[in-house]
Amino acid sequence: MIPHPKFHRLPMLVRCLLAYLTLASTTFIAAAELSVVPLPTKVESPGGAALILPNVITAKSPAIPGWSDHLEIFGEHLGRMTAGKHQLQTSDENDSVLLVSHAPKLSPEAYTLSINQTQIQIEASSIKGLAHATATLLQLIGGNDTESIPAMRIEDAPELSYRNFMIDMGRNPHSVALLKETIDLLWFYKIDSVQLHLTDDQRIAFPSTAFPKLWDGKVTRSEFKELERYAVQRGVTIIPELEVPGHSELLRRNYPEVFDKTGTDLTKSPKAIEGIKTLLDEMIALFPSSPFIHIGGDEAFGVPEDLQRDLINELHAYLKTRGKETLVWEGPAAGSGDNRVHPDVIHLNWRTINYPADQMVNNGHRVINASWDPLYLVDHYPRTNFTMTSPQHIYETMSLTTFKHVNPQIQTFAKPIEVDPTDKLIGFCMPWWEGREENFVQQTFPRLIPFAEVAWNPEIERDYQDFQERTSHTELARMAGFYPVSVESTRMLLDQDGVFEQSTQVSLRMRTSNSDSAQTEAEIRYTTDGSEPTKDSTLYQEPFTLTDDATIRATAFIAGAPIGHGSRRNLTMVNGHPNLALHKPVTSSTTSGPPFSVQRITDGGTNNLGFYLGYPADPDPILLTIDLEAVQTVERVKVFAYSVSGSFEMYSIETSTNGVDFEEVASRLEKPEDPTSLVEHRFSPRQVRYVRIRTQGNKGYVFDSFSKIVEVQVF
């Protein structure tokens, strides 16, 4: 199993203290007063009175391009977060409430934030450092119910420069609105960059002017330019990716006269290579702020590895002339001599098989950890399966030096590769592969937040309960600052998974009410089919009832123009068949997370996609224990397990009266001729309080180490 970082299970009183303070005159700051994610590197409290926030917060900043724009954005979210009570106003006075200074000696992402009775002082050397400081300030203000901020000094900087989230736009489209929403989350939680996987065999999301037949017709050049501006203003870098020579079918299909007919031919064709360079030039022009360009490099099936390496080196040399660094996925093996990939090429190691991470480091490469376990978030084709670990598993096991797979058939599952600490390990990438927009927020955002904290400082002392406590405050702040409309629903069985029973009444309301602005004139427009609301969508006037699955999207409009981000909520209706386990408490020996929480197996839903997702079920089985809450007679258990393409859940059923001594009463350990989603197990009547499923995972489709049980019914 993957080595866990050291955890310090501290007593509650100690755990709620955010940081030890280094000066003799300082005092502790409790986490209840300082709920920040990721945890700052250093916090000091010199004592003294807190800062009482005035209604008008004057702000002075140096005349550095982009800084005033960023402060204006910060002020907009501050005003929304505080219901308009606190407004930011520019000033030229040094005694301004918010004083921003340029500190060129600080590293690009470092910042200091000092708060005393009269002033907030920020020091940074770049817009990234400034953005990290304002994100911390938004969390401090919005995460508390008080109107004050304790006196403190924060000195903060990430331990790792590369902290990246990747979005696969080459399989399914993702809207500009969703990308902006994501960039704001990355700003708020200090994730440095977003990689856009723009090309693949299914679609090309990049609007090339040189090769217009490639484009999928979704996001235009002007929209990408606006997205680049939007990201830069928030201290987030957009890294574009062109995937070659693998996953290049659409290049070759649409322009065979340029890119040739096979991947092998592409690597050998001067005309094809010039075409690739033209596409790279277009990407550089559209995303000029990125120091990196990703050129793919993996899964080039059938292309000789020496040709793959030659192509990587050719494109790397070209990108170097354009002032860019080259990123590639783990692809061909190391090679040797003149056919070895140049050591300046940065590798994202994702399965550590073709080119193991320790060999990459030994060969002089900088390496980014993108390990399947715990970082890959995948919505697999044919759109009926998911592979991702839980937020808690990510938080507790994410390690810069450990490279592990989730597939038991791959050697790095049982024997992860451990790399000695080195400055060649420069950071992490969390990829979202193949996913659909309707699943995006619900599945990625809860996992990005723990990723953000660990990626900022992998050596942090990890206590998931403390992390959850802080996150509960920061998420309230983020919701208030970025999402004007709140979506509320009744009869919820699993609120975080969006599961309701039979029917739900949905209410939409403005989170804040600002009597001093036009926000009182806001209209809420909504849809229930997942489409983006427009000014012509249904006007919300009163609560409405749903009796089926729905994706609610709600946006506030003023004078026909949207404000803030639209809110989203996936809702799933269940109407459970009466049985002894319905709505009963259930626990798992491993962690789970939305929308696949362990409570799904007793929520009443039997839809094949409404499953619990547990990992790992190998080498040790997962134990799922249902408490019937009283001893009673049991003689049947029905298990609804995910099934697609012949897959089946391998499990046994055990019962107990005391929760300690269990006896096996039924099992399904061999693949049946015709796997089905429902299996009924009968046994002699017995007295039972606890029913336990001992599962070894869903076998025969994608990765066998995940359990996917939909529902368990007990009679």
From TrEMBL:
Any one of the GO CC terms: membrane
Coiled coil: none
InterPro entries found in the cross-reference section: Beta_hexosaminidase_sua/sub, FA58C, Galactose-bd-like_sf, GH, GH29D-like_dom, Glyco_hydro_20_cat, Hex-like_dom2, HEX_bac_N
Gene3D superfamilies hit by this protein: Chitobiase/beta-hexosaminidase domain 2-like (3.30.379.10), Galactose-binding domain-like (2.60.120.260), Glycosidases (3.20.20.80)
Residues covered by the F5/8 type C domain: 566-715
Region (Disordered): 506-538
A Gene Ontology molecular function term of the record: beta-N-acetylhexosaminidase activity
Catalytic center residues: E299
Top-level taxon: Bacteria
E.C. number: 3.2.1.52
Enzymatic reactions: Hydrolysis of terminal non-reducing N-acetyl-D-hexosamine residues in N-acetyl-beta-D-hexosaminides
Biological process, per Gene Ontology: carbohydrate metabolic process; glycosaminoglycan metabolic process
Region forming the signal peptide: 1-31
Keyword Hydrolase: yes
The keyword Magnesium belongs to this UniProt entry's keyword annotation: no
One Pfam family hit: Glyco_hydro_20b
Keywords noted in UniProt: Glycosidase, Hydrolase, Signal
Family: Belongs to the glycosyl hydrolase 20 family.
Protein name: beta-N-acetylhexosaminidase
Organism of provenance: Rhodopirellula europaea 6C
